[in-house]
Design a protein that fits this description.
The complex is a heterodimer. Chain A is mostly helical. The relative contact order of chain A is 0.05. Chain A is built from eleven helices and no strands. By secondary structure, chain B is an all-alpha fold. Chain B has a domain of 212 residues. Helix content of chain B is 67%, strand content 1%. In chain B, strands 1-2 form a two-stranded antiparallel ribbon. Chain B is globular, with a radius of gyration of 23 Å. Chain B starts with a strand and ends in a 28-residue tail after the last helix. Classes of the chains: A mainly alpha, B mainly alpha. At the A-B interface, helix 1 of A face helix 4, helix 5 and helix 7 of B. Chain B: It is a multi-pass membrane protein. Chain B: This is Polysulfide reductase. Chain B: One of its GO terms (cellular component) is plasma membrane. Chain B: It comes from Candidatus Kutchimonas denitrificans. Chain B: It is found in: Cell membrane.
Chain lengths: 253, 408
């Protein structure tokens, strides 16, 4: 069998044409692949397929944008823009609402009703910047949905309650109908202002001795005469008074 | 987690696969540069490892892109970087660096080096191997002195082109990290250079390991002159590499940018084991000192006289430690660069998974795969000196086969 070798006798070494052929096949293969595989509009506008823009534009619109809501929900919009949620768009809470805008009567957007929803942004996480309002959901008024206490469209930062009754409602209501109705809480408790902000950290004082009640009820006490008197030395001396008389609703047992 | 980190930094995006990738490319570049030593600078002692080093480089090069493909997903789209080259993207240009290195440097060099043997093997063998070897010659069966000297000259030229290409291949990987301006752990002009020298260190150590283990498996004596020389080279490369890294380190300390605090915090806590213990103590200082003492690196004779068997064990142990050290370097660069917050105010943790594409097992598989490929390559292209075929007798310059064992 005769050997096929077209370069025989020429000065080009045998290896060269073989390698050139291999590389030629690779390069031509690449060019052919380029011709067939690179999309027509590639590179027209940048390093991408220009027709991709049309594909994206053709996508169905899901979000209407908050300008759209303003038209019909003007009040909520104004309220939100003035409040702490001014940076949170309507549809980040109510979900995509483009269909609602085009047919408000038939299609209603969702309304969040789970604590988990607000917690997405407000649950304590060390990666959130300090100062961002965060809560511990286990301790923060569990079992109740957030908007029972906070207006979702204009949530307020915590207001410090003015009265003890804001938090100690039951005691206040009892005292109000008791013989001690005329006494201020602070007559018996020294309550620092910080107690209203961080009640568990700063605690008011409580009376600790019999002589404290004696200040009004003892025989020789310097107090209004209509106050009932006892003999502080003889009246059940081995106990403190509130073991028998509930101070917020004192009765004579 | 400790301190403050941005929400998108909590999880690391570049996993262990991205650690494997520079490690493997480093081995490729290193093994190739070792092979070039013999060819260009005529270091006769390391001749027995020349072909082995080339095949090792090829085996690891074939695996080098796999961790990236696995990490990025969508491997079926990868060819597009060749179809629509993006010159703005350093990462996309890697495809071309890789292709150049594979096609023009490594495959060509191996082909020219093996061509004579391929022809002769094909003539002597029967069956499948004969056809494989014949196909690999591409039909260029001319064994005339002129053709052989052409092989030799081309091989030399390719090696000369190959050295800068190997530098490019791995320097490029360092460039990718070094050019991330926003990351103080990475951003450094020294990065490509440090990567390159650590690559040379790892490549020499790898070839040393493969050479000694393969000799053991084949019941062949280890050429002591050769391993001595390799160990000496390994030592030199380690000295340069370590000095460069110290230079980088001191430079950072002296510059003392605002990131220095969080970085030192990271080194003391998160990277203590992998950087101080594995990379510096066990992976660099210990093998460097042992090699400096046992290998004939500083003078003609080694400082400590030891029997050959013990010396081989020490070389092998040091080379393995070096591998662990280099892998730790890659780990510390890739993982370390993502452990601290760009706010410089906190550290996160990397949780390595076991299963899954980005897991430990996948990484281990990718590190074992090159050895499997190498095994196949060695079967097809035996790199051992005794496998080299002898020319039957002189052939005339016309290229006609007049030998006793004709091809057909």
């Amino acid at each position: 069998m005769a050997k096929f070798d077209p370069f025989r006798g020429t000065r080009v070494p045998q290896q060269v044409p073989r390698l050139v052929a291999v590389f030629a096949v690779a390069i031509i293969g690449l060019l052919v692949a380029r011709y067939f595989l690179v999309p027509d509009t590639f590179g027209q506008l940048g390093h991408y397929r220009a027709a991709a823009l049309d594909t994206i534009v053709a996508h169905e619109k899901k979000y209407a944008g908050q300008q759209a809501c303003q038209l019909c929900h003007f009040q909520i919009m104004q309220k939100r823009l003035a409040g702490n949620h001014k940076g949170v768009g309507c549809e980040s809470c109510h979900g995509p609402a483009a269909t609602h805008v085009s047919d408000p009567a038939q299609i209603k957007p969702s309304i969040p009703s789970e604590r988990e929803f607000c917690l997405r942004c407000h649950e304590y996480s060390p990666s959130r910047p300090t100062g961002f309002p965060q809560i511990d959901p286990v301790r923060h008024n569990p079992m109740s949905f957030c908007s029972n206490c906070h207006d979702p469209h204009a949530p307020e930062p915590p207001v410090i309650p003015g009265q003890c009754s804001a938090c100690h409602g039951q005691i206040a209501r009892q005292k109000a109908v008791s013989h001690h109705a005329g006494l201020e809480c602070t007559t018996c408790h020294e309550a620092p202002e910080e107690h209203k902000v961080t009640p568990r950290l700063v605690r008011p004082t409580k009376p600790t001795e019999r002589s404290f009640c004696g200040g009004c009820h003892a025989r020789d006490a310097d107090s209004p005469p209509h106050i009932p008197r006892i003999n502080l030395r003889l009246h059940n001396p081995r106990y403190v008074c509130w073991q028998c008389h509930y101070p917020h609703y004192p009765e004579t047992p | 987690m400790q301190g403050y980190i941005y929400p998108n930094e909590f999880e690391l995006h570049w996993s262990i696969l991205v650690v494997v990738y520079p490690y493997v490319t480093g081995l490729v570049a290193g093994a190739f540069i070792l092979a070039s030593l013999e060819r260009v600078f005529n270091v006769k002692e390391v001749q027995p490892t020349y072909r082995l080093a080339l095949l090792t480089a090829l085996a690891f090069l074939l695996v080098a892109p796999l961790p990236l493909l696995a990490h990025l997903g969508h491997p079926l789209r990868s060819y597009e970087i060749f179809l629509t080259p993006n010159r703005q993207s350093a990462m996309a240009m890697f495809g071309f660096v890789y292709a150049w290195y594979l096609m023009v440097v490594l495959l060509l060099e191996i082909w020219f080096d093996y061509r004579k043997d391929l022809v002769l093997w094909a003539r002597q063998e029967k069956g499948l191997t004969r056809w494989i070897h014949y196909a690999l010659t591409l039909g260029a069966t001319d064994l005339s002195p002129r053709a052989l000297s052409f092989d030799e000259r081309m091989g030399r030229w390719i090696t000369i082109i190959g050295i800068p290409s190997a530098f490019l291949l791995h320097g490029y990987v360092g460039f990718i990290f070094g050019s991330v301006k926003a990351n103080p752990w990475w951003s450094s002009v020294l990065m490509p250079v440090v990567f390159l020298f650590s690559a040379i260190v790892s490549g020499i150590a790898l070839v040393l390991i493969i050479y000694m283990v393969s000799a053991m498996l084949r019941w062949k004596p280890v050429d002591m002159k050769c391993v001595d020389k390799l160990a000496a080279f390994l030592f030199y490369a380690m000295v340069v590499d370590f000095s460069l890294e110290m230079l980088d380190f001191i430079h950072r300390l002296y510059e003392s940018e605002e990131s220095i605090e969080i970085l030192s915090q990271m080194i003391e806590s998160r990277l203590f084991i992998s950087l101080i213990v594995l990379q510096v103590a066990l992976g660099t200082l210990l093998p460097m000192i042992t090699l400096g003492l046992t290998a004939p690196a500083l003078s003609k004779r080694s400082a400590v006289k030891l029997p050959d068997e013990l010396k081989r064990l020490i070389y092998l142990g040091s080379a393995i430690l070096v591998q662990i050290g280099i892998f730790s370097i890659r780990w510390n660069v890739v993982i370390g660069g993502q452990l601290f917050s760009k706010s410089l105010r906190g550290l996160t943790v990397y949780k390595l998974e076991l299963f899954g594409v980005e897991g430990l097992l996948a990484a281990a598989a990718l590190l074992i795969l090159p050895f499997v490929i190498l095994w196949v390559l060695v079967k097809i292209l035996p790199p051992w000196p005794e496998a080299e075929a002898k020319l039957p007798r002189a052939e005339d310059d016309s290229g006609a086969v007049t030998g006793a064992v004709p091809l057909r």
